[in-house]
Amino acid sequence: AQSVTQLGSHVSVSEGALVLLRCNYSSSVPPYLFWYVQYPNQGLQLLLKYTSAATLVKGINGFEAEFKKSETSFHLTKPSAHMSDAAEYFCAVREGNRDDKIIFGKGTRLHILP
Amino acid sequence: DTGVSQNPRHKITKRGQNVTFRCDPISEHNRLYWYRQTLGQGPEFLTYFQNEAQLEKSRLLSDRFSAERPKGSFSTLEIQRTEQGDSAMYLCASSRAGTAYNEQFFGPGTRLTVL
Lengths: 114, 115
Known about the structure:
The complex is a heterodimer of chains A (114) and B (115). Chain A has 114 residues and is mainly β. Helices cover 0% and strands 54% of the residues of chain A. Chain A has strands at 3-7, 10-14, 19-26, 33-38, 44-50, 56-58, 64-68, 73-78, 87-94, 102-104, 108-113. In chain B, strand 5 (44-50) and strand 6 form a beta hairpin. The N and C termini of chain B lie far apart (36 Å).
């Protein structure tokens, strides 16, 4: 069975500092992995996705994530945090080889300190 | 592309009442999903449709929950005899079948509060 574990339900960083949100996955098949962001009172928006091509994936708003098979990780990073990055971030994995279902982690709320 | 819309955005009801939520997906998307999200949790899959066919239902979806997508366009999610434990955000998402990575586009959600 596939699953993702997000380490840290809350992360605080100072404005301008590096953002690092951690996600580890478990999958019996080559995974497809996703990061979604949810701003207050809004639905989820896809930030980036890994689908077995390049291991370093660039997304919107300056975010990127690196797929590391040896560590079963897909951590999300951004070099310099901005106040507007404050939101909840969800890591997700495709269920098996299905193209119709993904499984979400519990989320990490990112706080940006002025 | 007008995005996925959900109505109402907020619903407050008394325990035991029935509620119905509506989701309008992106027009060319043939897949439609319902999720439930509670505080501190990620979205939990409830059910999904491809066109008008309901292809899968989670065990989370008790007999009090029913979803329809009668013409393969909008969908409704009804909860009968609501309980306080049903209080949550109900999210709808849509996607197009045939894409390898199944990008789902989410609506803003309907927040249900059961008193």
